[in-house]
Design brief:
7-stranded mixed beta sheet, about 30% strand, 6-stranded mixed beta sheet, alpha+beta, 6 helices, Phage major capsid protein
Length: about 280
């Protein structure tokens, strides 16, 4: 005789994913259209003036001082969700605004996909992720762990010019962060010190970012990167779009789907380095 009652809100499961599509993390460029955007660059860090000039000498004209420019490009890659069919009964009878809830979930799906691609995308018909693009900063000795020396050597594999950037830091997934936090010295004391969003190990202190798209420690894995993430460019094209369809395809029900367009590229190859574990 007692009617069923339902809690007046839907409890939504949560899972962290990562920062790569967020505003203010990498360098974000917004464009209304999808034409190719070139990013020119130059690496003259090895340049010197090798000749001591005597009185009346003229500079050498043999091409030895020529500057080589590079170019990365930002393209237009589109990712979309499948249609979700929502019945008229659910739309009109749910305690939640179902259209709003599903729109939020689809937005998170698209953001999660963007973070995946901007982290570990291969660059073959898709964005090249920051982890994929990073050069090897340190080869780990083990395929199952990280040492304090390796952490410090990874950070120092990035030139000091980048380490002064406000966007310099290390990035890893939560399992790798846990492995670092469990490291102890010979007396059994934990080595890692945490100071807000920074970690300190030995002489090295760096901002840490958790990105769940990154690989766990393992064979051939790139379990950690260090560098200036401001040198990674994220292009967002036209914004994320969530659309509904109440036309003949779904009527009297409703369909809802979404899409987003983006790309990413590491503009400066010296800016970000990876810790790479051996294959065996």
């Amino acid at each position: 005789m007692v009617p069923d009652e339902m809690h007046r809100a839907i409890v939504k499961a949560m899972a962290a994913w990562g920062p790569m599509f967020a505003e203010g993390f990498a360098t974000v460029i917004h464009t209304p259209g999808g034409g190719t955007i070139p990013i020119p660059g130059v690496d003259d860090t090895a340049g010197r003036a090798p000749k001591q000039a005597a009185e009346g000498d003229t500079p050498a004209n043999d091409g030895s001082g020529d500057v080589v420019f590079t170019r990365k490009t930002l393209e237009d890659f589109m990712y979309s969700t499948p249609w979700i069919k929502v019945s008229l009964q659910l739309l009109t009878g749910s305690v939640e605004n179902m259209e709003s809830l599903l729109g939020e979930l689809l937005g998170e799906r698209l953001g999660r996909t963007a973070n995946d691609k901007l982290t570990v995308g291969t660059g073959a018909g898709e964005p090249v992720g920051i982890v994929t693009a990073a050069g090897v900063g340190k080869m780990a000795a083990s395929l199952s762990g990280i040492t304090t020396d390796e952490f410090q050597e990874l950070v120092h594999s990035v030139d000091p010019a980048y380490r002064t950037s406000p966007k310099f830091g290390v990035m890893m997934n939560d399992n790798t962060s846990l492995a670092l936090s469990k490291l102890k010295d010979t007396t059994g004391r934990y080595i890692l010190n945490e100071e807000g969003d920074r970690i300190k190990m030995g002489r090295v202190s760096a901002k840490v970012t958790i990105n769940q798209a990154m690989a766990d420690i393992g064979a051939s894995a790139r379990s950690m990167v260090a560098g200036d993430v401001g040198k990674y460019f994220v292009r967002k094209i036209g914004g994320t779009v969530i659309g509904t369809d109440r036309g003949a395809t779904f009527w009297p029900n409703m369909g809802i789907a979404g899409y987003t367009r983006f790309d990413g590229a590491l503009a400066d190859d010296r800016a970000v380095k990876a810790l790479v574990h051996p294959a065996v």
